[in-house]
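Q: Okay, next protein. This is ATPase BadF/BadG/BcrA/BcrD type domain-containing protein from Gemmatimonas aurantiaca. I've checked the sequence twice, so it should be correct. Can you predict the 3D structure?
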Amino acid sequence: MSAGPLDPTPLVVGVDGGGTRTRVLLCDATGAVLARVEGAASALQTVQESVAADIIKSLIAEALAAADRPDTRPAVCVVGVAGAGQERAAQALWAALAQRRVADDVSVQADATIAMDDAFGDSAGVLLVAGTGSVAFSRAPDGRIERCGGWGPYVGDEGSAAWLGKRALGVVSASQDGREPETALTGAVLTALELESLEDVIPWAAKATPGTFAQLAPVVAQVAATGDLRANALISFCVEELALHVRTLARRCFQDERAAIPVAFNGGLLSRGSLVRKRLEQRLKSAVPGAMIRAEEVDAARGAIRRARRLLGVEV
């Protein structure tokens, strides 16, 4: 049956679609969590809109089954996916999801938008996202929304996991040539990719997606932790790029990077305890002295649920 405004227990769905995985959260109208599921990547830089819609539909069905509501169509579904900041892509995904009748009402947002909903609600702050790709968003005290980065894997995504993976390959190839010193990254990369020689990297890279390049980011962090100079240089470069995103928005929206600025992180590269996050938090002490870093993890799917409940007419 179809859940709607008259249903005593309407359901809402929040979807966080990234370049590595898609997370789906199913809740009732009060926000109580009924099911959480994860599946394949649905970022629009990675897959076509129709493929993303199929992945999302399948995961919603899985969540409904887990909640013992397999025949119920949710009242509202808010989908936040990487790449949906481009209007054409967002409209195409919305049309594909509406055609598949995943919910009575569907809203498609950029992934950072739903993450900001969870991090700050309606308040001001800067959100830095660094997973497969990278982008920063800010809500100014006057309500303006500004963006920095987010130009995609072929133009930008500086400081992202895919960016870091590509640069690791550049370092090991230069080391092989003798243009750079030897580095432990060489053996670690070959082991991670299950390749026998660096020559095998060429056909691998030709077929690689941003998501597969991003799989090398943990390798860089692991080697950096052993003291390898080239791996550490890559981590430092990554941190500088990410700090620049935050500082740019701090100046644009708060006038001065020394002002009190709430800052939140999202994305696998910035998970709590990660090497990049630790060094970025340290770097921001000088780059953005006013940064007040949120300790709690940002859950973009939870932010999508917050937005879905608002669309349902619930005060949140």
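A: Here is a summary of the prediction. The CA atoms of residues 206 and 295 lie 39 Å apart. The beta strands are 11-17, 22-28, 33-39, 76-81, 105-110, 125-130, 134-139, 145-149, 261-266, 291-293.
Q: Noted. On to the next one.
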